[in-house]
Amino acid sequence: MAVVKKRLLGGLTAPAFLRQHWQKQPLLVRGALPGFDGILDLDGMIELAARDDCESRLVVRNDGRWSVEHGPFERKRFSRLPRRNWTLLVQGLEQRLPAARQLLSNFNFIPYSRLDDLMLSYAPAGGGVGAHFDSYDVFLLQGPGQRRWRVGRQRDLTVLENAPLKILKRFSPDGQCLMHAGDMLYLPPEFAHDGVALDTCYTYSIGFRAPSHRELMSQFLIFLEERLTESGRYADPDLAVQSRPALLGADMVAKVERIVGEINWTQRDVTEFLGSYLTEPKPQVVFASPRKPLSAMAFSGVARRRGVELALASLMLYGSAKLFINGEAHKIDKATATPLRRLANARRLPGRLIQPNGPAADLLYRWYRAGYIYLSGPGQAS
Ligand code: SIN
Ligand code: CO
Questions:
Q1: Torsional sign, CA 96, 101, 104, 109
Q2: Which atom of ligand 1 approaches the CA of 204 most closely?
Q3: CA 357 to chain centre
Q4: Is 336 in the pocket of ligand 1 (CB under 6 A)?
Q5: Which CATH architecture has domain 2-208?
Q6: How many Cα neighbours within 13 Å face the side chain of 74?
Q7: Is 195 in the pocket of ligand 1 (CB under 6 A)?
């Protein structure tokens, strides 16, 4: 594993990469994944882009003017495209393709809580999304074909007004590189870049998430609001006569200040908020429950033989006392913690670690019925 990482990160160990590059400076790795020839072709992308539970975009550049269409797309849309200068982008590959999850597992040295998704772009010669910056860290892994990247650390991040996508008004690159299959470019947030396909070109973006402070605050307030238990009511048995009835009295303001000042939270609340928030499925995600579910007893028997796996779209994290799956929080005790944390980390749980009865088995059965986990295939039993 360490060998793979070293190659993936161009001879750097994961700690050295995090220290020197993560959120700081770009890194170009030649042959990060030698022989990488992609996991999906244009036909497969078009199939995904036709689904309404899959996020996709089509970006076309015509005479320096950009247009963006959002999926789902009918297949025939792709037969009416120019020969050059367009790109199809499909998000969330890891929710649909086991090979995409597998690819993402190379980046497990970064916590799942920071991961966003795997996006794939396809472009004929000249295709790209223009000079822009992303707010998040990204690894741009080159699939089949070649792309020329120009990159720049610029302060001026002003974007074009009235453009349908975020294009930098002024782009002053200070470097460029030609990427071949298996090469990888890491870019920290807000690093300007522009990638143009030289020929038929596939690029994989491993994107990370970093919510804005504003988003964290407002989501946390929603979380707190949902669990307010305070049942007191404003009271003023000491009310004094006020000659100006419209005046918002200082007494009342002080009382309310005291009341709202009683809103409090602990680190445990913050953990619970974060766990639920970060595992909340994206709006388009639908979990498929088994069509003919096994009984709890039959499930337990098969699960202990074959093991279970997280569904591709499932997100699972844990804190010290709770475990989070797809936006739900579950309390865990000592006995359930070990197997369920293993499931969260490895995304699969060998059958030998599943106890026949008890809270872990109950949870696994509930998650199986909800489509959050499935039974490992007979060939995959551990
Ligand atoms: C692309 O793959 O064309 C764009 C990826 C990016 O710049 O983030
Ligand atoms: Co970008």
A1: positive
A2: 2
A3: 33
A4: no
A5: Sandwich (2.60)
A6: 4
A7: yes
Q: Is 121 in the pocket of ligand 1 (CB under 6 A)?
A: yes
What number does the ligand 1 atom closest to the CA of 128 have?
A: 3
Q: Determine if ligand 1 sits within 6 Å of the CB of residue 179.
A: no
Q: Would the CB of 207 count as within 6 Å of ligand 1?
A: no
pLDDT score recorded for residue 209: 95
Give percent of the chain with pLDDT exceeding 90: 91
Give the mean pLDDT of the chain.
94
- Which tokens hold the place of 63? 């005479």
What pLDDT digit, counting tens, does each position of 7-16 carry?
A: 999 999 999 9
For the segment 286-291, the average pLDDT, to the nearest whole number, is 95
Distance of CA 378 to the CA centre of its chain: 30
What are the sequence ranges of the domains in the chain?
2-208, 211-226+264-382
Query: pLDDT (tens digit, 9 = 90+) per residue, 171-224?
Result: 999 999 999 999 999 999 999 999 999 999 999 999 999 999 999 999 999 999
Reported pTM: 0.93
Residue found under tokens 């006995």: 335
Distance from residue 376's CA to the centre of ligand 2 (Å):
36
Return the structure tokens found at 106: 């190379």
Q: What's the CATH code, domain 211-226+264-382?
A: 3.40.366.30
